[in-house]
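Sequence and fold:
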Amino acid sequence: MKIALAFILLQSCILAQTPGAATGTSQASTGNCSPNIVSSGSGPVTVQLIGSCAAVDSQVLAKLTESLQKFVGQFPRTISRLNELLDKKDVEIAQRTIEVQDWIDKFNELSKQLEQQPVEDGLSKQAADALHSGDLQRAEDLLRQLLAKEEKQVDLTAQNQFNLAQLLELRFEPLQALDHYQKAYAYRPDLPANDLAYAVLLLRVAKFTEAEPVFLHILTIERERAKTNSRTYLPELVAALNNLGLIYSTTRRPREAAATYTEALTIQRELMKANPQAYSLDVAISLNNLAGASSGMQKFNEAADAYTEALKIYRVLAKDNPQAYVSEVAETLSNLGLAYDNAQRPKEAADAYTEALTVERKLAKANPKTCLPLLALTLNNLGLLYSNTERLKEGADAYAEAIGIERDLAKANPQEYLPLLASMLENLGSTYGAEQRPLEAANAYLEALSIDRKLAQDNPQAYTPDVADTLSLLGILYTSEGRDSESAPLCAEAKAITKQLADRDPDRYGPMVDKVCKR
């Protein structure tokens, strides 16, 4: 039987700008707002906003415009490529700003590499000229010619494989770029900057198995470099450790993730002593990562300790820059509440959730698009806590508010929010059942079942088990009410589905067959 679900918060919401308030460039826009680079060919570059852009943070736009003016002034023929990045209707402008800067950095690095090739290397010079003129196809063709010519010269071949990979990234062809990063890595695996570009792209396309040995190799290099120049290379070592920890967490290896994050934290704490302003945020992020890994090992008290330490840092940061860090305070409080709940510390959990909700309501009022999802998740988690501690009326109220938010979110984005809505409805149904409110419980389960069936039609592998779980919950409710004629077909269908699942995966679903429609 499906248990009531709590959710750890992984999203981020940002406090909307108010007149006269200090702001940071992490501000997200709301609405369908698309920036577009405009140049007359002689005057300065401007960024024109198209669509619903009233809520766009002026500092985000200013930073974007400054970067583009500086870059396009030097390379004016790249405008069309940059506009491809900017024309992403479902991506916040703050994120587009990051992606544009990443594209510019790759362009500049490739330009630098091509210009550093030997003078007599005419093809590299032609490739650089093509790059600067915005003709990425010609630049690619010239680099491929260069590779064919220099295949036996290992260093040059490695560098040009890397150059071609970067060029393909500029053309938004990551999978093709990976092939050439891999070849560059095979030729010269002792170049950490090149290795890192390869490993990071592997992460971006979710090739975690392939990324792990590359990051392990980078880690070995950075450990040696840090011995001779700790000031320069300890931050690089920390970055490698955190990336490796991300791989371990994503591939469900919390023990290795925790060990890796702990090593990174040990280094970061020392760096923070010397320069708190530069490293305190990094320490907080690593503490959150460690807390997640500790929760994965069921070490909830250790997770709570890590969240508590991170929270102290975020509170200090939020005093100086509330626009950037108040949301981090709220999210860390909510995750701390979940850790306390799992550690059987309900009073502390309720206090953390309650404070988180106070902040999240303010954030959601100012920026509903980004922050309402987080408010709904915290309400769900608080509802679960109340329901498990016999505060059923308060639990039902929290679930009902969360469901109201989730319904509205699902109208705009059913793929993302319908699964969460179904789980929250099941939580509410279980609480109504415990309150002896069978009619309301049945209605909640029936709505959840309707959603589960719809989801299972589109993705049976992911959601058919949810159909069986909800059928079982509804069957148990009807049986408890003496409505055997209604419960029997529900339980029969639930058992048939569970048997089919057990045939495909006996270890996971075999033990569940006999538990269908049983408390």
Notes: Residues 1-5, 15-32 have pLDDT under 50 and may be disordered. The longest strand covers residues 33-38.
